[in-house]
Design brief:
The complex is a heterodimer of chains A (199) and B (181). Chain A is mainly α. Chain A contains eight helices and no strands. Chain A starts with 16 loop residues before the first helix and ends in a 5-residue tail after the last helix. In chain A, 28% of the residues are buried. Classes of the chains: A mainly alpha (199), B mainly alpha (181).
Chain lengths: 199, 181
Amino acid sequence: MLTLTLPVETALHRVSAAAKLAGIAGLGVILGLTADPVLLAAVFAGLWLAYLPLGPVEAARLPRRLWLLWPFVLVIGGWHLVRGTPEAGLVVILRMLTMFGAATLMLLTTRFDALLAAFSSLLRPLERLGLPVNRIALALAMAVRFIPVLTQRASDLAEAWRARSARKARHRLLVPLAIAALDEADHAAEALRARSALV
Amino acid sequence: MERSLAHIALFAALISVLGFLPRIDMVAGVPITFQSFGVMLAGAVLGARKGALAVLVFIGLLALGLPLLSGGANLWSVLYTPRIGYVLGFPVAAYVTGWLTQRLTALPLTFAAGVAAVGGGMIVLYTIGIPVAAYMNDLTLAETAAGAVAFLPGDMIKAIATGLVTGQLARMRPGVVQSRA
């Protein structure tokens, strides 16, 4: 579920993770600075060009990925049409689609561990100001590690429920899932202490 | 120290997993997800500071591109959608929920956590989310607030669930609800 990185290595895979993180944050700022629909459309077209190194299949898949946003496009675009401000609606939608496409591109071409390492090195200068960079990195890595554990626990609980009842489990799994998280946290805390991980 | 870090990390994971649960569409395009329930619960169980930190770790994962927001979005892909204000308001919502749970000691825990979830997870979250959504959609505050009404019933249920789950957790694992420790 979390490993969406394309297995085939492309030129974009070799760009450093720090550059891509900075790039996407930069794109976020730039998109906010302009409200010119022509310029935004050009940026969006440029984004599509950036998909080309991934091969024709991925480039052709972009519209389908963007399709996820259709409820927003429909509601926001529709309402702007109704109130007679189509240009403002177009700007809003173009920004949304461009940012979504760029985020997907980063996800497709960058491994999470590379991003985490880049993130910690970008934060490193803030260590002098008292930011516990190592602990932040450890918390992020632990959270990632425990997502599949808790997902598995949730599906085990759902399966056990189905074995016992014809009714749907739904909210009844929330308490056992939260208990699972708390118990896993206690185990993890003991393991950290045993390894003096926070010294 | 280790225990705090582990609780923060595990609640960040829990909030992520709650986003994978099937969502219920009340009206087309208005998904009711369990994710904001996770945010309220983090505050109510871990308390203001640790609850907010757990949500910040979750946002850190989103910033690193993981598609953990319900529907498979990350921080960058929602940056220019009306959702961004709500996502960035999550840590504040968790903080206020925890802070209120810690303060409302006159009430039994279940009620305190439920009321706190309304205060933090609804009132405070809407106060941040609606103006940001209005700006992102380029619509007026009134138009956006009218749209947000669709979320009220779902969020009310989540706030009640936060109270009930927090109360049950306190009974099943005494001492675990750190907002009351």
